[in-house]
Amino acid sequence: MTFPTLASDFYAFESQLAEHEQRELVRLRTFLETEVKPVVNDYWDRAEFPRQILPGLHAQQVFGNLWEETKAGDFSAVYSGWTALELARVDASVATYVGVQNGLAMGSIGVAGSPEQRAEWLPKLKTGEVIGAFGLTEPLSGSDSAQGLRTTATRDGDHWVLNGAKRWIGNATWSDITIIWAKSTEDGQVKGFIVPTSTPGYTATKIERKQALRIVQNADIVLEDVRVPESHRLQNANSFRDTAAVLRLTRAEVAWAAVGTAIGAYEAAVDYATRREQFGKPIASHQLVQDLLSRSLGNITASIALCTRVSQMLDQGVQRDEHASLAKAFATTAMRETVALCREALGGNGIVLDYDVARFHADAEALYSYEGTREMNSLIVGRAITGVGAFV
């Protein structure tokens, strides 16, 4: 069984992909619909990750396409965006796992690693032999990570000693390595380190009682005199500019995932509206319900257009921080409105997990905040508009 082009792609943007990209996208869609969608509500409810899906997930063409060491074909950044959309359309937590593994962990090594580090780690991360995490955010440092990192790295011969704490680190309860970003006590610059999670002094504790992205295994990390060799320092990560280069790659894909989250809620609402009857007929025939659905589709279509263009700019080598930031800020804001409209279309059933919309509605709040809040991304765009920074 295969699943056709999405009806929610109202302007047929998918048709602009190359033929081989369209084939791979349908293969991914089929895998997600048959292997992932049937189990995600149960795992979301239990706040556990369905690890049995990982072999099939890593067999899809969603990992490593940016890097020569792992590239399996000629795939565009627009295709990568569509894979994020497809993943989030079924479940935003699974999309987040891929974003952390493929974008943040592999991206850190791909952007800032030496040729030897790339050759050692990227193939293992692509296949899922090694699970990665990305440790930037801290208990007291989020939006101000450029200046506010408190985790330190101190040179000691041919090793570095890391001390500090990280928070909200996805995959970190079961990752094999975590990319830790820390401020050097020598020059005050932010540097990156590949830290095996078995290293003495490294502990990760699952964050409990989350009400969004419950499948994602977020952790609090404590680093107490964690020693890593110089060979595990990302050799081309010399300041926060290099960290920002990784985030630039992933921020636009979060925008794509936001579109997918909105589509997941929208498709569930359309399905519900055509089956649910009130006053002797399906609620899809009521004008106010049709208004909710058409407004949702408008948000989705505008967001796909914006995301398509920003990914084309990445392919062309002209995408800048403000381009990715505008896409992320707009798409997540539109997503937040859309999931609320779709929840409204379901009435009371909109808060019941069985109808899917409640999961998308809750998960949207996390996507709205991570990879830069709307406010921070708006300030990045505002600086580009005016030439004046207004961050503090």
TrEMBL record:
GO terms of molecular function: flavin adenine dinucleotide binding; glutaryl-CoA dehydrogenase activity
InterPro entries per record: ACX4-like, Acyl-CoA_DH_CS, Acyl-CoA_Oxase/DH_mid-dom, Acyl-CoA_Oxase/DH_mid-dom_sf, AcylCo_DH-like_C, AcylCo_DH/oxidase_C, AcylCoA_DH/ox_N, AcylCoA_DH/ox_N_sf
Keywords, sorted A to Z: FAD, Flavoprotein, Oxidoreductase
GO biological process: fatty acid beta-oxidation
Domain Acyl-CoA oxidase/dehydrogenase middle: 133-226
Known cofactor(s): FAD
Span of domain Acyl-CoA dehydrogenase/oxidase N-terminal: 27-129
Pfam family name, one: Acyl-CoA_dh_M
Residue span, Acyl-CoA dehydrogenase/oxidase C-terminal domain: 245-385
Protein known as: Glutaryl-CoA dehydrogenase
Organism: Microcella frigidaquae
